[in-house]
Each structure stands twice: as structure tokens, then as C-alpha cells.
Amino acid sequence: MIHKIIIPTPFAVGDVNAFLIKGDTLSLVDAGPKTPEAYKALQHGIKEAGYTFNDIEQVILTHHHPDHAGWIDAFDQAKVLGHTYNDLWLKRDDAFFKYHDAFYLERLLEEGVPEEYLFWVKRMKRSVALMGDRPLDQLLAEGDALPGHEGWTVLETPGHAQSHIVFWNEKTGEMIGGDLVLEKVSSNPLIEPPLHPEMGRPRSLLQYNASLKRLLTLPVDIIYTGHGNEVRNAHALIESRLTKQRERAMKVLAMMDGGSRTIFELTKELFPAVYEKELGLTLSETIGQTDYLVDKGLAREAQDEGGVFHYEQA
């Protein structure tokens, strides 16, 4: 049994989906943001399936973002399971916030972002109030069997989030996919601090593309998605998304016709109407395209004496 619960969020993405799954264990996959409206929707959805909060034995996270990891606190009787990266955000200690702010400040400076925009460092964690406040009880990693749910396996699918995992049932062709593949929109490959500082900045778009391509090798029949309707034509949808992404990258390559550009300069040109309002998202998107172009050998990256990266056609 997979029972979908639609939960409102205060974010631009709109409603988020949680899933009640019944096996040897009763589990809830994802738990909405920590708002009163989301709590009511969760309560209603669980009741509709014939259960109460106390019946839930496990809450399993696809990733740590606040629209998915909020109400884990409401399930006192349940264990919380997820990828180890979730804990950075669920514990939120001072050491992590220092590391977090230093990571983003370094990124903004190397992207050539002017000083008047550096306040965005603090904005990068503006939704923590809507996140759960308890650490994981059990870690899930690549290849693990999903506890209490025979036939379901954990796949690590980073890109949209460094903590992102999906649950795959080879026998039935079903996948509970979090934000990996959504029906209407392509997920943002967000720039996030790596699990360990020495790992360096994750190349989020390259990770995301690799996670999508991995699905092309699996006989996926249906994906229960984190937002919107289920996806049934996953392979065709993924192929078209990868094509569109390449087209976007080519547009960015053409912006380098006149010589080398910084990430901030490219972002202003790519997103003139929204870059000031959504600087974090738009910079992430631009960096993804330059990472792609450098990876394909179509562009070159060079750092100047001030530490700013410049990109030019190869």
C-alpha cells in the first residue's frame, strides 16, 4: 500500500507529497514543512488511511529540505531514517553554521558577487525554522534494503540535495522519488556545502544529471514524486530534460562570445528579472551550466589574483 498525502507549503514550489507505506512496518516518507497548515494536512491524510500519528513506526526522509523534513518532530513513537547528510541540518549546531556561512561567503566571492549582495550568506538558511529538530535514528545508504519493506532498495541520487535518496522496487517498477524527477518542472540542482569540507564544492548539476541517467538504466514504471502528480513516462521525460539542460548550457556558452565572464555577470544576463530576489537559486543554476560546459571541454575556468573565477569558450 502506498497512500499519498498532499501537504501545503509556504514555498513557491507549492504543495509537497508525503507517502504512507505499509509493509511489515508502517512508514511515512517525508513529513512536510513545520507549519500548522502542514500538520493539519498530515493528520488528515494519516487519519484518512485509518491511522494516527502514534501508529507510524518510521519516518523516512528523501532529503533534508524544509518542505520534506519538517514534522519529523510530531512522531515521538517513530524512528527517523535518512542519508547521513540530513543530520548536518537536523542537528544545526554552531560549528555547522560557521562552516555553512564560510562556505557560502567563499562561493559568493569566487563568483564575483559584489559586496552589497553578501548578506545572502545569511539568507541561505532562512527556512531552518520549518525543519525538524531531532537527529536521525538510522542511516540509509546506497544499496541498503529499506527496513520493514521487502523488495525496496535505497539508491543515492545526489544533485538537487546532497542528502537525496530514492526508494526503488525492481519487482514492481515503482519508485518513491522525492524531488529527483517531477512531472511539471526540472528540480534545481542546488549548491550546498559538502558533507566534509575537504570534499570541495559539489558539482550539483553534474551529480543531478548522473542521477537522472541512472534512472534510464532501470525499468521504471511509476515514480511517486515529491511534488505534483506521479510520473509514468520517466525515460522520455528524463531524455527531454537532459536535452533542454544542454540547450540552456549552450545559451550560456554563447554569452561568452565577447570574452570571459564571471558567474555573477552570467547570472544577471540569464535571470535579469529575478536574480536579485532569488540570488541563491539563480547562481546555483548558472554554476551548474558552467560546470557542465567545463566538464564537456566547451569552456575553460580560470581564477584571477583576487580569487574570482572567469569562464571563457574553450
Number of strands: 12
- CATH-defined superfamily of the largest domain: Ribonuclease Z/Hydroxyacylglutathione hydrolase-like
Count of discrete alpha- or pi-helical segments spanning 4 or more residues: 8
Task: State the end-to-end distance.
Answer: 52 Å
Low-pLDDT parts are: none
What's the level 1 CATH class of the largest domain?
Answer: Alpha Beta
| Major sheet | 6 strands, mixed
Oligomer: single chain
Radius of gyration from CA coordinates:
20 Å
Q: Provide the β-strand percentage band.
A: 15-25%
CATH fold annotation of the largest domain: Metallo-beta-lactamase, Chain A
Helix/sheet category? alpha/beta
Topology as H/E string?
Answer: EEEHEEHHHEEEEHEHHHEE
Q: What's the arrangement of strands in the largest beta sheet?
A: 1-2-3-4-5-6
Describe the structure.
By secondary structure, this protein is of the alpha/beta class. The chain folds into two domains: 2-90 and 131-232, Metallo-beta-lactamase, Chain A (4-Layer Sandwich); 93-126 and 243-313, Arc Repressor Mutant, subunit A, CATH 1.10.10. It contains eight helices and twelve strands. The chain has helices at 36-48, 86-91, 94-110, 120-123, 204-215, 234-254, 263-270, 279-295; strands at residues 2-7, 16-22, 26-29, 58-60, 79-82, 138-139, 152-156, 165-169, 174-178, 222-225, 299-303, 309-313. The strands form three sheets. The chain has a six-stranded mixed β-sheet with strand order 1-2-3-4-5-6, with helices on one face. Strand 9, helix 5 (204-215) and strand 10 (222-225) form a beta-alpha-beta unit. Helix 7 packs across helix 8. The longest helix is centred in the C-terminal third of the chain and has 21 residues, at 234-254. It starts with a strand and ends with a strand. The model has no long low-confidence stretch (mean pLDDT 96).
